[in-house]
Hints:
The protein is α+β, with helices and mostly antiparallel strands. 26% of the residues lie in helices and 28% in strands. The chain has a single domain (3-130), classed as Gcn5-related N-acetyltransferase (GNAT) (Aminopeptidase, 3-Layer(aba) Sandwich). It has helices spanning 16-28, 40-47, 112-126, 141-149; strands spanning 6-10, 58-65, 70-77, 95-103, 131-136, 153-154, 160-162, 165-173. Strands 1, 2, 3, 4, 5, 6, 7 and 8 form an eight-stranded mixed sheet that branches. Helix 3 (112-126) links the parallel strand 4 and strand 5 (131-136).
Amino acid sequence: MSHQEYIIKEAAPGEFAKIGELMVNVYSQLEGFPSKQEQPNYYKMLASIGSLTENPKTKLLVAISSNGKIGGGVVYFGDMKYYGSGGTATAEKHASGFRLLAVDPATRGKGLGKRLTNACIQIAKDEKQNQMIIHSTQAMQIAWKMYENMGFRRSDDLDFMQGELPVFGFRLVFQK
């Protein structure tokens, strides 16, 4: 299946549970990432990912195939106060962010992560934001290269600890 057969769109409520399942599966398989036993509330949040859309300017985007298969998802935050991270990110002004980017292992390598990221960037630009903020962990270093190739730069001022887990901030400043 080619990546063109997937469209990126705002998820419908009927897709929320399946996207939540995908997120739990993807994050629980990351080497070096906390387990469900270590961070049960984090995994509960992943499973009920659609509830985040109850916040203003928050969207759950999905990559979905023409036959209804969910290939990935991401949560876009148009207002950083709902971003839900530690550290200083939630106080950033004129900024958008995204979190919880997950791509089904069966669809990796088809560009879905990049397409979901670009969809978030486009929404932020449409909303006239100045920058995009994201976070990642050591367990997600495969994604770091993609983010850096897309123009994101490490931003130490956004780093924080989630329990025992160091979380690293990245920033993409939009050209005026």
